[in-house]
């Protein structure tokens, strides 16, 4: 038990040396680390509570996705049945309780209508499951019900798109190293370190940025528009900055061009008024469409609509053929810039709300690091002194083990890319305390065995052997608690659990295996006849 | 060199003999803790009740009353203020606006910031948290679930590893530790947030660690002294492991003490919870869980029976050889 072959010594020391080397980048300045190859950048990341920054948890409403999907389905069905030959006339369309139902005017055409609709309801997935069920009720009413698998798929793909859009928007803001992750079915976690004021970020994320150009319905009766009624084929939309004073306007339902056909959007200034505007450029198809519509509607106003609100409704003075246009509204430089970013990154397929937000100023973060570091150093010194006073030479061995343990924990965290948070520092300090527990167990056992009259070598051998079992058992149970924290915990609990679990694994190794190596070496070279412990 | 020994050699305290007193005292304290928790309630942080928490740092010492009246003038709901760490830092809690979601919460923060900056030049918001009611409900659920699973998981582990009495006594002792910690938070009205859940889980982990060491020694002595009376055997085991119990508690207290004094105000509640937990956990290891084994009727093994205990016997054989290697 106390003799180690050279091979075993190397085998024991190797992981420790690797661990310590991996801890080194955490202490180097940024410049030096950047020059290292990526595989050697084993650095501990600082959590937001230490580096300062913002954590946002965004939630998408699944109902919203389902509703939009149903609306899309309605559009598709209308278009499909209109295209049918002979045309299938329908009426009484209603979308209630998450179902879409409509009546086929000519009962003889019901079967043909169902035939036409079926292909639309097939899922894109490979499972062959339908996204919608189509039923005929009362011989002439067709009911289209979304299947739960279909809704799940829709939410999933909406969330994927939303995550991408958010990533693009945050990248455009030029912040460093943001973390954007999907969480659960309908949530996205956004973490941006070093961000002082997340207001701009939140404003940006809130914009769905659905841009549409529609013609203004000039035939509408202003009195009726004010009451929210619009002629057939038109709709009333809010227009907060309407120069006429009425905060509403009637526009044609049909979309001239939409934001999906944009190639670029930038913030700029209006040449005459010098007010901030957003300059947009359409892609080829969008530009052609826009040119065509503006040519046909010279001297009529059109509305620029963002997220269902009219920003402005300028007159088409001449055909706009170049494929670029200017969006004016009541912008400041900042809001114009935000809209430009939002337009460039595409529109969010679903509304997101912030359900949790945590922001830590960089000052507090720096204070916490300083305090945590100071507390750790004092804890190490106090524990080390206490161990030395209690166990002499063996106490020193334990202290060396603890020092190595601290470095190895940092190294392992670096390898795993784990994040050090404030509770993580607490986990660190606690690990220092519990790491020596293993040594205390061994040394107390050696003391006991000496009292029972065993010889030096035998007592040490026995102490390690007997205590090892206890240490193993105690740490397994401790790891159970740590594992549960990691699996279930959120935020601070997780940060704490990571350090705790790594600490449990490394401390058993350093406290048992490594100190045994040191003790064995001393016994072999010095051959002491008695030990003070 | 004379080495420090906190517990003298051959200490022999009759822990088992006073177990009825210890149980009575423990019961009383636990009932008080539960009563305090039920009566006063916990000062739940925004993590668990939802709402808005702002930590404002002032350039010089400030009276909370002045801050309170500034915020009251904004009409953003009932605020609760607390000095935090030092007299320059104030924690402000506000309810979340009922309507308007995130945008509205944002507006409240901005409104408060403007009013405060006008009233107290140089003030900064060093951190703020917004947690919606929905998320806070989930955080409570996972928090409670985590603690319960940890306690049950550990009790089951020690049941499989040893006799059922060990599982039960450990379970009782840990439940006691958790209840005492809750009582402590009810009495002090320190804020109970997500960090504290981590602290409670750590207390559970530590306490079990402590009990495992003693249980392990009891098992070892049961094999060694097959004919010894159970009371004497448990006393012997607790006394034999007492130096270690005390040493470890003291080292951890030293480490936590450093954290409490120098670790900054954010971690103070967390550290206080842990220190209390270490004391309570150590107490319950020594006075509650081991003596409880007698009440539960743990019997010494007659010769030869050890073989019959499948899992426990296997575990024993496995322990010393495999156990040391992590």
Please, could you describe this protein's structure?
The complex is a heterodimer of chains A (533) and B (326). By secondary structure, chain A is of the alpha+beta class. Chain A has helices spanning 6-23, 30-35, 48-51, 62-83, 110-117, 148-173, 199-206, 222-226, 284-296, 333-344, 362-391, 393-416, 422-451, 456-488, 492-526; strands at residues 45-46, 53-60, 90-96, 99-104, 132-137, 141-146, 179-183, 187-193, 211-216, 234-238, 248-258, 262-269, 276-282, 302-306, 309-312, 324-327, 352-360, 419-420. In chain A, a hairpin with a 2-residue loop joins strand 3 (90-96) and strand 4 (99-104). In chain A, helix 7 packs across helix 10 and helix 12 crosses helix 15 (492-526). Chain A is elongated and about 110 Å long. Chain B folds into 2 domains: 19-43 and 136-315, Up-down Bundle (Multidrug efflux transporter AcrB transmembrane fold); 51-131, Alpha-Beta Plaits, CATH 3.30.70.3400. Chain B has a 4-stranded antiparallel β-sheet with strand order 3-4-2-5. A two-stranded parallel sheet of chain B has the order 1-6. Chain B is elongated. The model of chain B is unreliable at 303-326 (pLDDT under 50). Classes of the chains: A alpha+beta (533), B alpha+beta (326). Chains A and B meet through helix 7, strand 17, helix 11, helix 13 and helix 14 of A and helix 4, strand 5, helix 5, helix 7 and helix 8 of B. Strand 17 of chain A pairs antiparallel with strand 5 (124-131) of chain B, so a sheet runs across the interface.
């Amino acid at each position: 038990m106390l003799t180690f072959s050279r091979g075993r010594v190397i085998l024991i020391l190797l992981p420790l040396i690797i661990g310590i080397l991996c801890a080194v980048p955490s202490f180097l300045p940024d410049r030096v680390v950047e020059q290292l190859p990526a595989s050697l950048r084993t650095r501990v990341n600082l959590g937001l509570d230490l580096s300062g920054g913002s954590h946002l948890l965004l939630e998408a409403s699944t109902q919203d996705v389902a509703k939009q999907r149903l609306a899309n389905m309605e559009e598709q069905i209308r278009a499909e049945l209109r295209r049918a030959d002979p045309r299938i006339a329908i009426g009484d369309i209603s979308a209630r309780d998450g179902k879409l139902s409509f009546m086929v005017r000519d009962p003889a055409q019901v079967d043909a209508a169902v035939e036409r609709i079926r292909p639309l309801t097939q899922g894109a997935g490979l499972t062959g499951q339908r996204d919608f069920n189509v039923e005929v009720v009362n011989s002439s009413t067709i009911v289209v019900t979304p299947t739960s698998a279909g809704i799940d798929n829709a939410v999933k793909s909406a969330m994927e798109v939303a995550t991408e859009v958010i990533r693009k928007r945050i990248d455009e803001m030029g912040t460093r190293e943001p973390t954007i992750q999907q969480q659960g079915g309908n949530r996205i976690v956004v973490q941006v370190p070093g961000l002082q004021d997340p207001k701009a970020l939140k404003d940006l994320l809130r914009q769905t940025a659905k841009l549409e150009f529609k013609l203004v319905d000039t035939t509408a009766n202003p009195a009726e528009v004010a009451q929210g009624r619009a002629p057939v084929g038109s709709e009333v939309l809010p227009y907060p900055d309407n120069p006429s004073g009425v905060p509403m306007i009637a526009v044609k339902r049909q979309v001239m061009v939409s934001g999906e056909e944009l190639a670029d959007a930038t913030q700029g200034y209006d040449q005459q008024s010098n007010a901030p505007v957003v300059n947009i450029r359409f892609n080829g198809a969008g530009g052609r469409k826009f040119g065509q519509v503006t040519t046909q509607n010279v001297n009529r106003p059109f509305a620029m609509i963002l997220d269902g609100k009219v920003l402005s409704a300028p007159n088409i003075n001449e055909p706009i053929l170049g494929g670029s246009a200017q969006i004016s509204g009541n912008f400041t430089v900042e809001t114009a810039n935000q809209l430009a970013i939002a337009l460039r990154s595409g529109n969010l397929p679903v509304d997101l709300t912030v359900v949790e937000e945590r922001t830590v100023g960089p000052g507090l973060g720096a204070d916490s690091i300083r305090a945590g570091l100071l507390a750790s150093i004092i804890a190490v010194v106090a524990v080390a002194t206490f161990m030395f006073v209690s166990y002499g030479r063996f106490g020193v061995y334990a202290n060396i083990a603890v020092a190595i343990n601290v470095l190895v924990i940092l190294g392992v965290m670096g390898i795993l890319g784990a994040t050090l948070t404030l509770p993580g520092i607490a986990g660190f300090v606690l690990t220092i305390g519990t790491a020596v527990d293993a040594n205390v167990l061994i040394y107390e056992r050696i003391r006991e065995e000496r009292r029972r009259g065993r010889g030096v070598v035998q007592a040490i051998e026995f102490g390690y052997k007997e205590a090892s079992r206890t240490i193993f058992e105690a740490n397994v149970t401790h790891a159970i608690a740590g594992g549960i924290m990691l699996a279930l915990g959120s935020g601070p609990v997780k940060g704490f659990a990571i350090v705790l679990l790594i600490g449990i694994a490394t401390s058993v190794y350093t406290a048992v295996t490594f100190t045994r190596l040191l003790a064995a070496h001393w016994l072999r070279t010095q051959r002491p006849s008695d030990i003070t412990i | 060199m004379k080495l420090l020994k906190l517990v003298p050699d051959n200490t022999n305290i009759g822990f088992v003999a006073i177990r009825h007193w210890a149980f009575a005292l423990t019961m009383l304290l636990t009932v008080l803790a539960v009563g305090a928790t039920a009566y006063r309630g916990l000062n739940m942080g925004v993590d668990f009740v939802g709402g808005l928490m702002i930590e404002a740092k002032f350039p010089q010492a400030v009276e909370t009353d002045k801050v309170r009246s500034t915020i009251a003038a904004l009409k953003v709901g009932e605020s609760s203020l607390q000095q935090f760490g030092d007299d320059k830092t104030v924690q402000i809690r506000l309810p979340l606006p009922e309507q308007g979601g995130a945008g509205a919460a944002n507006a409240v923060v901005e409104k408060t910031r403007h009013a405060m900056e006008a009233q107290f030049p140089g003030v900064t918001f060093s951190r703020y948290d917004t947690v919606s009611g929905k998320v806070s409900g989930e955080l409570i659920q996972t928090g409670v679930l985590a603690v319960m699973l940890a306690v049950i998981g550990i009790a089951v582990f020690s049941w499989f590893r040893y006799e059922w009495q060990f599982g039960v006594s450990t379970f009782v002792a840990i439940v006691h530790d958790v209840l005492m910690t809750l009582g402590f938070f009810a009495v002090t009205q320190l804020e109970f947030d997500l960090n504290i859940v981590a602290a409670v889980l750590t207390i559970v982990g530590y306490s079990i660690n402590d009990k495992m060491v003693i249980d392990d020694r009891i098992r070892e002595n049961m094999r060694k002294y097959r004919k010894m009376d159970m009371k004497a055997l448990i006393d012997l085991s607790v006394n034999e492991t007492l130096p270690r119990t005390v040493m470890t508690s003291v080292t951890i207290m030293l480490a936590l003490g450093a954290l409490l004094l120098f670790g900054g105000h954010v971690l103070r509640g967390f550290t206080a919870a842990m220190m209390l937990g270490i004391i309570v956990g150590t107490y319950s290891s020594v006075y509650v869980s081991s003596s409880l084994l007698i009440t539960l009727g743990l019997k010494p093994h007659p010769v030869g029976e050890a073989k019959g205990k499948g899992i426990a016997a296997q575990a024993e054989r496995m322990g010393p050889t495999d156990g040391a290697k992590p």
